[in-house]
Amino acid sequence: MIGPYVLPDDVFDALAAGEGGRPAVLLLRRARRSRNLLLLRRALDGPCGGAAEAAAGLLAGVERVAPEAARSVIDGPAFGTWAARTLRDCPAHGRRGCAGRDLTALTVLAAVRAAHPARITVPVRDGRLALPGLGTVTGLGEAPEALVVVEATAGAEGTPGASAGNCRVRVRVLTAAGERVLPRDPSRPGHGWQPVAVLDARHRGLTLRVPLETAAPELPALETASAGPAAWRDLLRQAWELLVENHPRRAEELAAGLNGIVPLPAPARGVASATSRHAFGTVLTSWPADPERLALTLLHEFQHSKLSALTDLVTLYESGDGPRLYAPWRPDPRPPGGLLQGIYAHLGDLAFWQERSGSRHGPAQADAAWRLAQTRAHVERGLTEAASHVRLTDLGTRFLERLARTVRDGDRDGAGAGGGSGGERLARAVARVQAGDEAVWRLRWAAADDAGTERLAALWRAGRPAGPLPAQDVRPATGAVAGPGPEFGRWAARQRGAERARPAREAADAVLAAPDRAQGWAELAAAAAEEDRPGADVLRARTELVRDLCARLTARQAARPPGEAPPRPPDPLALAAWLADPAVGADPSGGGPVADAAGSPGAVSPGPSGLAAWLADPAVGADRSGVGPAADEVGAPGWDPQARGVHPARGHGHVGRGEPAEAGPAPGQASGDGLAVPAESGSAEAPLDPARSPGPEPAADEGPVAPAPPGPGGGPDAGAERGGGGAPAQKTGVSMSQNARSPLAKTSATG
Fold first, then answer.
1. What is the pLDDT of residues 484-520, one digit of tens each?
2. What pTM does this model have?
3. CA–CA distance from 662 to each of 329, 355, 356 (Å)?
4. Among 56, 234, 458, 528, which has the highest number of CB atoms less than 10 A from its own CB?
């Protein structure tokens, strides 16, 4: 099953563009299978080896007589997550015994599908015996384990069945309290038996068949009492028809790669969905309620799976700090891998709303147009953040270039859907929400350097230029993270119908009256951007600095001797304009900046770095390592780690400390990057090297969000061959040794 994998250039470019097609998905699926086997080999060689040895032996026996049955388990929703948890937690042997024992439950499905006789001991927890892919035995009392016996009917041994319910086996569960016999067809419910339902859908000759996985202990599933298998099956069939009709290429990808749906508890509002980076092709989602929402969820989450599998083969960015980056679809700071995951997943949303906005009418069309504009703004802003702050490899730069081209092409193709004055009004509304969202995010997570802020206050009072902006620090999130709050939500909702922003002058006065009100700063950032005020970028991208400086200057004024009339309080608009131009002096009376021909010695305006600089200026030679332009070393004078570069999706344009404001979080959809479940598809590690331990396993995603702890972030893989933009096909991927030996068999495997 383990073999060499070379990712051709055209496949890499197709995946970077957002799709890839069925052949690319099949390649990623085979590569992920090899990764899972390498992790199994490592588990068998580690402290869990004894606990997992019997199950691995059974799986090897099934592989010899029915390879497809064994592969279906290794590719399934639970195998990768089991391997990751075992390697991460098992050196201490966990709280409930060695995690290696749980492999036994996974192998029962392979034995049943192959009609292969087996006797294996499986752990029982809380009176429940969970058999992933098959179902759950309940009411087993205090028994710590059960003996599962698979007996093939006459003439059936070695003849694999098409499903778990092939009616050619008998499954017995024996405990100290007695014996349970599963129904002759394990896909049917019985006394104390809750089967895993199989959902199937077919349209225009394209079939999707996936389990509604409720028995995988590694995944946070729940019982489907609120929406039973029949409801899920009916909803999937409607969603599948929508996908096949309107997104046939992506539907082919889902048919080739989707291998399970795990039901999640419903959030207070919207839909909760997520993807585990260790479970390729498995979508975790709460009840979507309508087929459109389910179709969108499948598109979005499967993008996560594709990128996670791709980063098994290639390294897109260098490992670095923990979560520090802004993603407009998340309320918490993101690590580089999480940012790239969100950008890529939103390409599925972009394609979905592009089609919806062109095929709907009336209010439904207006809603789709809003969501399309908002999603595009999210992707574009994410591209800017990645280009400015992520240390991309050669392939990472190429990946973002292809991705940005897809966004530009989609913008051009969809220009007619929301064009004219209505489209311009929509774009302004989305930009207001985006500017306000980023301002609130910065007030929450970013902190300006105290010494630097005091220096600026002194320069302002002296009427001198500001010079370079001080350093800043973005705090990582700890624990559950909620969104920006109901006040911001109400303001953002009003923007959808507003003709224009609140006047900037009025917004600035409101900020002076209540400087601690985050909503006021959001309105000011949005208004300044819409009016193209000097310093609008600083108000959006360094909101915390303007607020802290304003507070510091006001506090000093309040300390003046009695009877002395204080000067006017510092105007936030004037402060922002002064900070934006290092060659302009300040009017300490509060009236605003004044011209200073001499400028400030040593003042350097930070420029874009990395991909952003290369895209902004064709004359600048790109450093293909992805760190930055060849002439600008990181850490050199003038380099600002928070500089906002030109938008890759928009090409040349506004470059400086900030970008034009864009859309805020999409309402209603709480996804792996949205606003509704525990942590995410994560930092996109590339753990094909079996010597590297997988990072922490996220359970689900978003709002309130339980962010995944910082992981290694996807450093170079052992044996990775990096290729540049013009590299031949052999240089794009990673070639695993052709002499690798299967962990399940004693013979060399090159599959």
1. 999 999 999 999 999 999 999 999 999 999 999 999 9
2. 0.79
3. 11, 21, 21
4. 528
